[in-house]
Amino acid sequence: MRINFMISLPLCPMSLQSEFTKNVLKLMTGTSFAQLIPILISPILTRLYSPDDFGIFYLFASTASILQAVATGRFELAILIPEKQKDAAQILVLAAWVCGITSCIVLAIAFFFNAQVCALLGDTSISPWLYLLPFSILTVCWFTILNFWYVRHKNFNVVTISKFILSGVNAVGRVALGLLNWGIAGLIVGTLVAQFTALCYYLFRLPSQSVALFKEVQTVDIQRKAKQYAAFSRNMVSGSFFNVSSTHLPNILINTFFVAAVAGFFGMIQRVIRLPLVTVASAFDEVFKQKASEEIHQHGHCKNIFYKTIKQLTGIAVIPFLIFYGIAPDLFRIVFGAEWQIAGEYAQIFCFPFFLHFIISGVVSIFYITEHTQWYSFSHFLQLVLVILALLVGKFYFDDATMLMYCLSFAYSITYGLMFFLLIYIMRK
To answer: Each residue of 150-159: pLDDT tens digit?
Structure first.
């Protein structure tokens, strides 16, 4: 609670005359309040659900996130690139079709190879929930595709409201189902209902002009765009897969290496610390990528908006992170209950990489806006390799959960630092 409140304070001095600043403030304020909802209900959830429940839920959520990262072929990232609306609409329809095909493939795998997938994930209790993976992939990916469409048209009010709907419905659903003693089902079903509701809102708010553009798209248009952006898709799919895997693979392997409770602790800090921070930084990136694309079309570069955004993100993050580092264990114990103090100790270990990730998340779209997708893919491939090494060292050399967290923190810090310098190099180049 305190973190999100403090985050908004340094924004006050920003010039309100800038369209970029106004849009950032709009999204930032809405996103911050939307992220307050899951943080506020977390103390309730940790008393309704056990660490083991959260461990299984994060296993499901991590698997879904890895699949969602590649389900669209990442074609939606190219929606911002074309100058013509017709071309952007064709890319959107292409991404939606690829997602639909991927979801059908995942559904077939869940039916015919359920036992094998459970063995791979190291937990048979995930078995009945594998059948819901295609639904999660479809709703989240279509929501993401439409999000890029709304950002292209600077419709940030709709984007902000969608975040409130997603957080609000998720919170109400989880608490209600937890009170009904649904256990792990409450966490998963509550999340899926929220994702579907947010998607329905996006579909409902689509302007008639946009719907008309989508209806005009022909099969030949989809095929042409698939060929045109084939290289873009290959680089971004691999990069996104490496990125999401390096974030969510620990949830899967920790559950296998140790016990579900340790995975629950790790997943909790991802959920209540990293995810809100990245969401707030992404509010910057939503506006930044639209403005950066505009400046590139006009001037051939976007240096001004890039460095301005970096300075604002750094100013916002420094003081809250220093304070949080000092109080994390006690804060988790007081807010979430005594059994969650370990999660606070893990959060303290991850303060520095979380700080770097916050900065990068606000400008990461530079990689695909400037079409340096190979670098995006390479940096996240390196991150995945280091994360896997950290997991192996933490388990087989130390065989200690706390040392595993230090190894992971070191791996993330190296790669986030590398990504930061790559972004600076792109700007100078």
So the answer is: 989 988 889 8
Q: Distance between CA 248 and CA 387 in Å, rounded?
A: 10
CB 197 within 8 Å of CB 68: no
**Nearest-angstrom CA–CA distance, 198 and 157:** 14
Domains of the chain: which residue ranges? 2-428
Predicted pLDDT of residue 3? 35
Distances (CA, A) of 143 to 25, 60, 282: 22, 19, 15
| pLDDT above 70 for 31 | no
User: Which CA distances in Å does 422 have to 33, 152, 262?
Assistant: 32, 25, 34
pTM metric for this prediction: 0.74
Binning pLDDT at 50, 70 and 90, where does residue 369 land? confident
Average confidence (pLDDT) over 138-159:
93
Nearest alpha-carbon partner for 173 in 159, 185, 163: 185
Region for 89 from its dihedrals, namely left if φ exceeds 0, alpha if ψ lies in -120 to 50, beta otherwise: alpha
3-state secondary structure 327-376: HHHHHHHHHHCHHHHHHHHHHHHCHHHHHHHHHHHCCCCHHHHCCCHHHH
Highest mean pLDDT among 248-257, 309-318, 412-421: 412-421
**What CA–CA distance (Å, rounded) separates 130 from 108?**
11
Asked whether the beta carbons of 237 and 70 are under 8 A apart, the reply is: yes
Residue with the two structure tokens 């180049």: 429
Cα–chain center distance at 80 = 19
Q: In the predicted model, what is the mean pLDDT of residues 164-185?
A: 93
Q: What are phi and psi of 84, to 5 degrees?
A: -85, 135
